[in-house]
Design a protein that fits this description.
Length: 342
C-alpha cells in the first residue's frame, strides 16, 4: 500500500474541525479523514515533535496562542498559553535545544518558549520586537541554520533577514547580523541546503527566489542569483509567492505561486544555482503552503481560497503532474507530513 498521512491546519473557527489528520491512498487516489481537532480558532501553522509525539499549533488571533496536543491513540489537548503577540503565523520546534520559536506577524515580534521534558510549552523566555514606530515589521518564519544555535528570521514587512543566536543557558537571542533586501521584495520563507550552506528565499512581493551562500565564519551572505517564479516580468501582477521546499534528495526546489496558482520547480545545479524546470497547476486557489512526501513522489498543497487540498505528482524526470484528486476543508493553510510511507 502507498499510504501517506498529513496533518492540516487552517483558518477554521472553534466550531470547525480546524485541524485534521488525513490519509492519502496513492493507489486509489482518495483521501480519508482519520481524526480531527476542534475548539481552536485559526490554527494557521503547525509543528510536530516526533520523539515526544507533540503537535504544536498557533492560533492566529489578535491575542495569539500556542496549543500543545499529545498525539496518542486519541489526540488530546495538554496546554495552551499566549504567544506574547498578535497574529502568530509560524512556529518552529527545535528538538535539539528543546525550544519553541514563534513569529507574531501582527505585532511584529518573535518569542522563544522553553519546553519541559514532556515537550510542553512553558512561559516565554524571550520577546524581541523587530520594528519601531517608523518601520512596520511582519516576521514570517524562523529557520535553523543547523549549527551554532543560529536561526534566520524573515521579515517581509521591512524587507529584512535577521540572524539570531540562541543562548541555551540564558534562554535569550542575540542578533548576529541583518541582511537588507530591495524594497518591496518581501522575504517570506526559506529553504536551505545545510551541506553546501546555500539558502533559497521565497520573496512574496517580487515573485522571485533569491539564492545566497551563508558564510559561517563571518555570519554574512554571498549573493548568487535572483530568479523569477513566473515565466516573465509581465506575469508578476497579482502573484504572490508563499512556500518553498527542497526535494528530499536535494535535486529540485519547489515554490508555490498564489494568484497564478501553480507550483514551480527548479533543478538545483552543482553550484547551487537554479534552472527553471517545470510548473503545474494547483487546481485550487491560493496555494499558501505545501509539503513534500518523504519519498519525493508527491506534493500536498493547501489551497486556502478554494477550501481544498490538492496533489501534484513528481515524475521520475522531475516534471510535475497535477492529479485529479482533492480533499475539501475550510481554508487550509498548513500541511505537515505525519509519517513515512507505509
Amino acid at each position: 500500500m502507498n499510504l501517506y498521512q498529513i496533518i492540516v491546519g487552517s483558518y477554521g473557527t472553534e466550531r470547525d474541525e480546524a485541524i485534521q489528520l488525513v490519509e492519502y491512498d496513492a493507489d486509489k487516489q482518495v483521501f480519508r479523514k482519520k481524526a480531527y481537532i476542534d475548539g481552536v480558532s485559526s490554527p494557521s501553522f503547525l509543528a510536530f515533535e516526533p520523539n515526544k509525539q507533540i503537535l504544536y499549533a498557533v492560533s492566529e488571533e489578535d491575542i495569539g496562542e500556542i496549543i500543545c496536543y499529545k498525539m496518542d491513540i486519541n489526540i488530546r489537548e495538554c496546554i495552551r498559553t499566549e504567544t506574547g503577540g498578535s497574529g502568530p503565523c509560524y512556529v518552529h520546534v527545535d528538538s535539539d535545544t528543546d525550544f519553541l520559536f514563534i513569529t507574531n506577524y501582527g505585532s511584529g515580534n518573535i518569542t522563544v518558549h522553553p519546553l519541559d521534558d514532556a515537550g510542553m510549552v512553558s512561559q516565554l523566555s524571550e520577546n524581541i520586537s523587530l520594528g519601531d514606530e517608523s518601520n512596520i515589521s511582519h516576521p514570517h518564519m524562523v529557520y535553523p541554520l543547523g549549527r551554532n544555535d543560529l536561526y534566520f528570521v524573515t521579515d517581509l514587512g521591512q524587507d529584512l533577514l535577521f540572524v539570531f543566536q540562541l543562548d541555551r543557558v540564558d534562554q535569550k537571542l542575540t542578533k548576529k547580523n541583518i541582511f537588507h533586501f530591495k524594497k518591496g521584495t518581501g522575504p517570506r520563507h526559506i529553504a536551505m541546503n545545510i551541506s553546501s550552506n546555500i539558502i533559497y528565499v521565497a520573496n512574496e512581493f517580487s515573485s522571485t527566489v533569491s539564492v545566497y551562500r551563508y558564510v559561517h565564519q563571518t555570519n554574512k551572505l554571498q549573493f548568487l542569483q535572483d530568479i523569477l517564479t513566473v515565466p516573465n516580468l509581465e506575469q508578476k501582477e497579482g502573484n504572490f509567492c508563499a512556500d518553498i521546499h527542497i526535494s528530499p534528495f536535494g535535486e529540485f526546489l519547489y515554490v508555490s505561486n498564489r494568484g497564478r496558482n501553480t507550483i514551480v520547480s527548479y533543478k538545483i545545479l552543482e553550484s547551487g544555482l537554479l534552472q527553471r524546470w517545470s510548473e503545474a497547476s494547483t487546481v485550487g486557489k491560493w496555494p499558501r503552503n505545501f509539503s513534500v512526501s518523504a519519498d519525493g513522489k508527491y506534493l500536498f498543497i493547501a489551497n486556502e481560497h478554494s477550501d481544498s487540498i490538492n496533489v501534484i505528482q513528481v515524475n521520475n524526470d522531475g516534471n510535475l503532474t497535477t492529479l485529479p484528486v482533492h480533499y475539501s476543508m475550510t481554508s487550509p493553510t498548513c500541511i505537515l507530513m505525519h509519517e513515512k510511507r507505509i
